[in-house]
């Protein structure tokens, strides 16, 4: 049906229609008109009713117009529509700040929100994200253990440990990608029988066999005993009593067993005491009271000869008998650990090393240390915010859903099992209601175990609008979140905005970023003047050098540099792009510089992925260790004039409040 303009006016003023489109983005598609008159009238009516016209589509004859048509395979009747794309760039730099927390009882969170000054109202938002668990999807980590192709003693034990530790949790969360329970049990029973056949007469285990010409490995022997302890406690499988008793006997004599090995004389005290501490931890898991032995070991070694992992294992052993003396030692160790942690607003991690023995004897990694200490802290101070931060830090370190080794996967899953039972023992059944001052913003409902998250975004325009309840004229607001029901609520409140002032100073909220320019053909063609302004010669190729510094471990990093409008990026990998500089090139990164999770000796070639776009250059890395990193690319000065150079910015993509940038600059191209 076709309406006249007058009839359309009547429709537009209809209250129901107005409510339907008020504030909405509207695209007009009209293939029944021959001119643009009625489409223009439609657009005017929509705007009068409060709608926002974002596009108009009409049929054109391809033979009469130079514009190409875009076919829509899903909707053939719109196949002759014309699609015009106009690039609209978001602000060159934005800033974000966030706070994290969790509540268990029926509580109210009151978070003051300071309204940012001099920002672009069309960009940014106040974002509130909630969830009912700190455990992200664990399926991939379990599958990684289940499908691991090699079957040395450590790998079989770790598979049994990890899957058994989270056995009950897996049932609760219904991980659909895992095999049937009967299939899992059959495989784990086979692994347990294989381990039984590898046990030495002294109760220990080797990596592959129990042949007479080989020997029991201390770490492997303790690790298998750990596996047996978890199996006994979970009561899913029957463990051979003789196998278990012989294993426990080996742990009780662990120090003498180490001394009988000829090559053990080359091991450091740090490694020796760590093995003894691990043995005490496992015996504590077997419900033995080993607090006195743990106390004596601590008095004998002190902090100098105990790794952070050993301290974590001793904390669990000391917890088996909390008399006054043991409590004092626990407090001393806890205080020491607090001084060794590296924290951000969301995550925490520890860094430790055994020296040369770390990989060869202890199979050490930093993520395993974090997991061991998370479990230990859950024994002595389960309400500490550090536990939640360690949990999130571990989950941020996953690659393709799992950790990098069988050791990391099993110890992390053990820690998360402890976390689940202490921090999230109540089945979620609650509603989180959110207000901004007196305005209701929405609710998130959680019922049953789920790893889902929900987010409410409040536009910056609303944040900047005057508050009816504010009498101080500073326009600040309060975010109120109320939890009603059982379970633990985790939340993240983040403010993201873009300053309206193009002249931005350098800032360091986790990253220090520096930038400089060097002309490739003639150094005089790119120079910085006394007032800070750069001068480029028109047509010159410019090498852009970015230096990024971080003092903490960072995850999922993006380094982005926006080009001045008078320049274009050059991909030096393309034939015909001659720069005379063989070192500067996107996609020239060398991943081999990173090995075994350690920092490289060189800071060049650290990127995992790089992009050159029309207006910016990008570099990415999933994990950065503390250090100084250099990245370069090449651009050409293509247009004469005076241009603003937006800051280069580095940030953690999933924690954008951890960022840094250099300052805004100016360039004259002539």
Characterization of the model:
- The longest helix has 18 residues, at 406-423.
- The protein has 4 domains: 5-78, no CATH class; 117-133 and 428-497, no CATH class; 139-423, Glycosyltransferase (Alpha/alpha barrel), CATH 1.50.10.20; 507-669, Immunoglobulin-like (Sandwich).
- By secondary structure, it is an alpha+beta fold.
- The chain has 19 helices and 26 strands.
- The strands form 7 sheets. It has a 6-stranded antiparallel sheet with strand order 13-25-24-18-21-20, with no helix packed on it. Strands 3-12-5-10 form a 4-stranded antiparallel sheet.
- 32% of the residues lie in helices and 25% in strands.
Backbone structural class: alpha+beta
Q: How much β-strand is present in the residues?
A: 15-25%
Distance between the termini: 60 Å
User: Largest sheet, if any?
Assistant: 6 strands, antiparallel
And the CATH topology of the largest domain? Glycosyltransferase
- Residue-averaged pLDDT, rounded? 82
Helix count, DSSP H or I runs of 4 or more residues: 19
* Neighbour order of strands in the largest sheet: 13-25-24-18-21-20
DSSP E strands, number: 26
The level-1 CATH class of the largest domain: Mainly Alpha
CATH architecture of the largest domain: Alpha/alpha barrel
């Amino acid at each position: 049906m076709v309406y006249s303009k007058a009839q359309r006016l009547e429709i537009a003023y209809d209250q129901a229609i107005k409510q339907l489109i008020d504030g909405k983005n509207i695209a007009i598609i009209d293939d029944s008109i021959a001119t643009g008159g009625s489409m223009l009238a439609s657009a005017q009516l929509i705007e009068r009713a409060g709608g926002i016209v974002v596009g108009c589509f009409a049929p054109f004859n391809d033979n009469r117009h130079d514009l190409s048509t875009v076919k829509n395979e899903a909707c053939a009747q719109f196949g002759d529509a014309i699609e015009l794309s106009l690039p609209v760039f978001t602000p060159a730099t934005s800033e974000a700040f966030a706070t994290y927390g969790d509540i268990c009882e029926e509580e109210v969170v009151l978070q003051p929100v300071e309204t940012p000054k001099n920002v672009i109202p069309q960009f940014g938002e106040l974002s509130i994200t909630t969830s009912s668990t700190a455990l992200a999807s664990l399926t991939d980590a379990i599958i990684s253990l289940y499908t691991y192709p090699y079957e040395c003693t450590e790998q079989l034990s770790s598979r049994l440990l990890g899957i058994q530790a989270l056995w009950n949790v897996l049932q609760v969360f219904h991980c659909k990608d895992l095999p049937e329970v009967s299939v899992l049990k059959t495989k784990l029973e086979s692994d347990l029988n294989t381990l039984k056949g590898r046990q030495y007469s002294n109760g220990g285990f080797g990596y592959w066999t129990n042949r007479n010409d080989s020997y029991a490995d201390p770490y492997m022997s303790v690790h298998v005993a750990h596996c047996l302890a978890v199996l006994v406690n979970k009561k899913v499988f029957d463990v051979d009593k003789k196998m278990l008793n012989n294993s426990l006997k080996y742990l009780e004599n662990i120090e003498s067993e180490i001394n009988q090995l000829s090559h053990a004389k080359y091991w450091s005290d740090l490694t020796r005491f760590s093995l003894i501490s691990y043995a005490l931890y496992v015996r504590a898991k077997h419900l033995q009271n080993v607090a006195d032995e743990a106390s004596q070991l601590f008095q004998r070694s002190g902090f100098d000869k105990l790794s952070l992992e050993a301290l974590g294992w001793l904390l669990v052993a000391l917890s088996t008998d909390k008399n006054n003396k043991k409590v004092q030692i626990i407090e001393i160790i806890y205080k020491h650990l607090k001084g060794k942690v590296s924290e951000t607003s969301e995550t925490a991690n520890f860094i430790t090393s055994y020296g040369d023995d770390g990989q060869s004897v202890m199979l050490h990694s930093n993520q395993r240390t974090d997991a061991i200490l998370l479990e230990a802290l859950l024994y002595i101070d389960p309400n500490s915010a550090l536990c939640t931060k360690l949990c999130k830090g571990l989950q941020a370190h996953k690659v393709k859903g799992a950790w990098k080794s069988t050791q990391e996967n099993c110890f992390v899953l053990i820690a998360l099992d402890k976390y689940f039972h202490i921090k999230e023992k109540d089945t979620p059944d609650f509603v989180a209601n959110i207000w901004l001052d007196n305005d209701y913003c929405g609710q998130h409902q959680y019922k049953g175990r789920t790893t889902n998250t929900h987010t409410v975004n409040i536009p910056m325009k609303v944040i900047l609008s005057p508050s009816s309840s504010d009498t101080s004229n500073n326009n600040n607001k309060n975010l109120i979140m109320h939890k009603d029901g059982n379970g633990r609520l985790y939340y993240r409140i983040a403010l993201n905005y873009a300053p309206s002032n193009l002249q931005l100073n350098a800032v360091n909220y986790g990253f220090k970023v520096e930038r400089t320019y060097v002309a490739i053909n003639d150094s005089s063609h790119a120079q910085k003047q006394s007032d800070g302004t750069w001068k480029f010669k028109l047509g010159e190729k410019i090498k852009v050098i970015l230096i990024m510094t971080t003092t903490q471990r960072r995850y999922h990093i993006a380094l982005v540099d926006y080009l001045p409008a008078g320049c274009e990026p050059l991909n030096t990998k393309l034939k015909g792009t001659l720069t005379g500089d063989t070192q500067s090139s996107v996609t020239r990164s060398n991943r081999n510089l990173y090995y075994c999770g350690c920092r490289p000796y060189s800071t060049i070639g650290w990127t995992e992925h790089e992009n050159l776009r029309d207006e910016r250059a990008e570099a990415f890395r999933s994990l950065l260790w503390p250090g100084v990193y250099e990245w370069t690319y090449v651009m050409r000065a293509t247009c004469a004039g005076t241009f603003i150079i937006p800051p280069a910015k580095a940030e953690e993509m999933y924690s954008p409040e951890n960022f840094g940038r250099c300052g805004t600059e100016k360039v004259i191209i002539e």
